[in-house]
Design a protein that fits this description.
This protein has 7 helices and 4 strands. By secondary structure, it is an alpha+beta fold.
């Protein structure tokens, strides 16, 4: 009886770890078009920033939502992904934030995953921080509002 129970527990543990590994591998940081230095330094379209980590469960749940947002708003907003999966991706994201003039936003939100932020294109201040919502309307309202003021 004990051997059978241990076997079931071991089998469930292996299945859980395999599922977690598959989710981790499938949750790479989204790729967005690079923002040129001239575009980054000018006051222009709002920034829509995804704060991501490969291990983040909220990021896994909202992956398709981000893809839809990126497709809908491509060319109208400046899309950015900051990846906090590990020290290497965090360092690369920090450097990208510096290049884009988003150092303050990055410093204030470093490590905060599962969030999509909308930043004013002139001030680079957050006009919306949406954490973990799966309601597309919430994102559209925040982004559309930022687009109207630009």
């Amino acid at each position: 009886m004990i051997k059978k129970a241990l076997f079931v527990i071991a089998s469930l543990s292996v299945a859980f770890m395999a599922t977690a590994a598959a989710l981790y591998v499938g949750n790479a940081a989204p790729v967005v078009p690079e923002i040129s230095a001239a575009e980054a330094n000018g006051a222009g379209a709002p920034f829509v920033v995804k704060l991501h980590a490969r291990w983040c469960p909220v990021c896994m749940l909202t992956k398709d939502l981000w893809s839809d947002i990126a497709t809908t708003y491509a060319g109208r907003v400046r899309l950015v992904v900051f990846d906090f999966t590990n020290e290497a991706t965090t360092s690369a994201s920090r450097a990208e934030a510096r290049r884009l003039g988003l150092e303050s936003f990055f410093a204030e939100n470093e490590g905060w995953t599962g969030t999509i932020a909308v930043l004013d294109g002139r001030t680079r201040e957050a006009t919306a921080l949406i954490h973990g919502s799966r309601d597309r309307r919430e994102y559209d309202e925040a982004i559309d509002k930022a687009l109207r003021t630009f």
